[in-house]
Design goal:
heterodimer, A: 98 residues, mainly beta, 3-stranded antiparallel beta sheet, 13% helix, B: 134 residues, alpha+beta, 4-stranded antiparallel beta sheet, two-stranded antiparallel ribbon, globular
């Protein structure tokens, strides 16, 4: 691969959490059957599993500490990709001792 | 020695490379940074460099020439001023410098530019210019 055509990388780092935009709900099917349904921020189906009222429904949120690595070829493309990737996550502010 | 600072607010964007030499120099005067950059540029024929001020007494240096990973590690570990930063960067397999704001600090500003700027410096300037308003 030549120097001019090589893929360049940009790093976006911070404490991030995903799942806050997802839809997570219980759906009733039939008389006594309840299902837990999870959809992403665009409304696309992720999974469905049996739900029991004894087990409370909890949003699928998790915290990620590793940086996002975004590949790009031009600066404009990098800006667009970063703006898109950043929206997918909730960036958490916190107090910490450095 | 300057302490490591966690990202406490939002996110930070960093320029990442494993194809050339970039150095983060903390707690150092501008005069010393410029002397170091000039010496490295002359000794390793790095073609040119830019000095960027990230915060008072903290500077980034970006050299123009593309280098192999082996050469990058050799040069980095020849400098005691950059060893601590280099160890953390090399664990990740690439070198990263911040190009956006961080914890209320301003974006890095270019303070000095010399020599050729058509290789790694051009890559850095490309993202630096585009992320100026972020």
């Amino acid at each position: 691969m030549g120097w001019l055509t090589m893929v360049k990388k940009i790093k976006v780092y911070g404490t991030r959490r995903r799942g806050h935009r997802e839809k997570h709900y219980v759906k009733k099917e039939g008389k006594n059957r309840y299902y837990e349904v999870r959809r992403d921020s665009k409304g696309h189906f992720l999974y469905k599993k049996k739900w029991n009222p004894k087990r409370p429904l909890k949003a699928e949120t998790f915290t990620e500490l590793h940086p996002l690595i975004i590949e790009y070829k031009t600066g404009k493309e990098a800006l667009e990709k970063v703006a898109e990737a950043v929206k997918q996550w909730e960036w958490i502010d916190f107090e910490a001792e450095s | 020695m300057a302490k490591h600072e966690w990202v406490k607010e939002g996110y930070v964007v960093g320029f990442m490379t494993d194809k050339g030499l970039i150095i983060d120099l903390d707690n150092m005067t501008y005069k010393k940074v410029r002397w170091l950059a000039r010496t490295l540029c002359r000794e390793h024929k790095l073609e040119g460099y830019i000095i960027v001020r990230s915060s008072p007494r903290s500077y980034h240096v970006i050299f123009n020439r593309y280098l192999s990973w082996k050469t990058i590690t050799t040069v980095l570990f020849s400098l005691w001023e950059a060893v601590r930063w280099a160890v953390f960067q090399l664990r990740e397999g690439s070198l990263t410098l911040r190009i956006s704001t961080k914890n209320g600090k301003n974006k890095p500003k270019i303070v000095f530019k010399t020599g050729k700027t058509n290789k790694l410096i051009a890559d850095y300037m490309d993202v630096y210019e585009h992320f100026r308003k972020l």
